[in-house]
From TrEMBL:
Keyword tRNA processing belongs to the record: no
Cofactor dependency: Zn(2+)
Residues annotated for GTP binding in this entry: T152, K153, T154, D155, G204, S205, S206, G207, V208, G209, K210, S211, T212
Biological source species: Sphingomonas hylomeconis
Protein name: Small ribosomal subunit biogenesis GTPase RsgA
Residues annotated for Zn(2+) binding in this entry: C285, C290, H292, C298
Cofactor note: Binds 1 zinc ion per subunit.
InterPro entries assigned: G_CP_dom, P-loop_NTPase, Ribosome_biogen_GTPase_RsgA, RsgA_GTPase_dom
Assembly and oligomerization: Monomer. Associates with 30S ribosomal subunit, binds 16S rRNA.
Taxonomic path: Bacteria, Pseudomonadati, Pseudomonadota, Alphaproteobacteria, Sphingomonadales
Database matches in Pfam families: RsgA_GTPase
NCBIfam families: ribosome small subunit-dependent GTPase A (TIGR00157)
Amino acid sequence: MLNPLMTVTETTLIELGWRAHFSDQLGPADMPGAEPVRVMAVHRGKIEVSGAGAHHLIEPYIPGAEPTDAHPTIGDWLLIDRETLQPIRVLDRMNLFKRRAPGDPHKEQMIAANVDSVFIVASCNQDFNVARLERYVVLAREVGVHAVVVLTKTDLTDTPEAFVAATRAIEPGLHVEAVDGRDPAQVARLAAWCGPGRTVAFLGSSGVGKSTLVNTLRASDSIATQAVRAKDDTGRHTTTVRRMHRLEQRGWLLDLPGMRELQLPDAASGIAEIFDDFTLAAEDCRFSDCSHGVEPGCAVQAGLATGALTPERFDRWRKLAAEDSVARLPGRRRSR
């Protein structure tokens, strides 16, 4: 069923996020029969698209397209035939979030396209996990999208500043906002990234309060929320359809299914940026192929010995680097 909130009569392309990056890809051959539309929701077997005053539920498959373009993802811009509504092609993306497919490390799964900012959501309770946050920040840096970490459920702790400090330690200058997701006054601090035509994606585990934040940003309670399990503060998925939601600030929000274990695709540059203290130290190792274990002249081990580098970050750095090495093994099928 089409989202009733999306069946508008006057929605301009600019309001949907259209910009020169996409219009520059159109030529005389595309007009007048082709119509640009954006993917607003992904269902099983169908996609919802919106254009200038039009909203359609169409087939998601584009015959003859490259693998990453054959099945458009949420946030994509594509051209459709104005008469038949058949998709013609996906316009080149500004960016693309993807992950290694759960259960198959040789495949990649598209998450969202053409995002301006990403809100990485974590809660101030037992489910708070620095290693998981680092994975999301690495993903944002690799894609080239500005990341804002939003710490929720501040009402459940007497020391929200401790969670903020642990998060800011991930990377110098990382933008962190701690809010009670039910309080419109606190959530209003996020409005700067939600302006007209802007697209914000929410990433985070299930149960961290993403749906509550969405409801507050939209001044609506139409998004279902569920209680977390008391014993470990984890939650169940409340988002089953990937959908773009209109915000009061006239931007768009992608509330994605929670991903508890984010297996990164190729992410070498993002890892190097987030763990630049280890990357810089490694450049001073005696051997260029140093494994940072027992080799003589290892600058990383020297930094650990002096306390300049921490063993906790060292373990997480090596784990992410090892995953990235696996992602680069020959024979992997990669997206463009």
